[in-house]
Amino acid sequence: MTEYDANKEFFLSPKMKMSDLVNSNPDLLNILDRFGIRLGFGEDSVEQCCRKQDKDAFTFLMICRIAAYGGYLPGSSELDKVKVADLTGFLRSSHDSYQDAWLPELESKIDVVLSGRPDAQKKVISEFFVKFKDELHKHFEMEEKKIFPSLDAIGKKGKGARRIFKEEHDNIGEKIQDLINLLLKYLPYGNPDTCVTVLLTHLFFLKKDLATHSRIEDCLILPLLKGWESHE
Question: What pTM value is reported for the model?
Fold first, then answer.
């Protein structure tokens, strides 16, 4: 992860081409998808692309900076400019992406790897995956029931009491790493197994992507909720 340099004002500028943004960091493709920006944007700049697709370029670029630069933290003046409806839309779409696409794909790859293996090996790997999936679902459910309604209220400038939610993120990364270690260290292989390599690659990328998702939430959700409470 590259360190953010606040002096590079040109970096991730709304004037840069959207295609250049993606080429500079292909991991941002997931951000585009979850933010609701569709491909086929030609030579449009980030600003033009967001405007045409009714998205807020400032909020989009802030999320991209958090995802791409480990040292970047938005200041209070930047948080004041966030379009909360676009942020919550992005977070809800991220949850859907994990639950409707990433987890089923991961499960299908695990099924291929376990096919024909002894029942004991299948049981260990399957149980780890089920625990990981359950924890992820619980974490998403907590956010959707408790945190997102508060963000929605901020976006609508509604009134009423709001809590600051300080629940720690479940340590999902550790659960994924446990599964990775099982596959790397303890599942015996007679020959090189391309299916296992594909599964491990998928797991490493999912671990990285979930860490980025958690960082986006940490950098934006709690500061916004705290700022709202301080003004009540």
Answer: 0.83
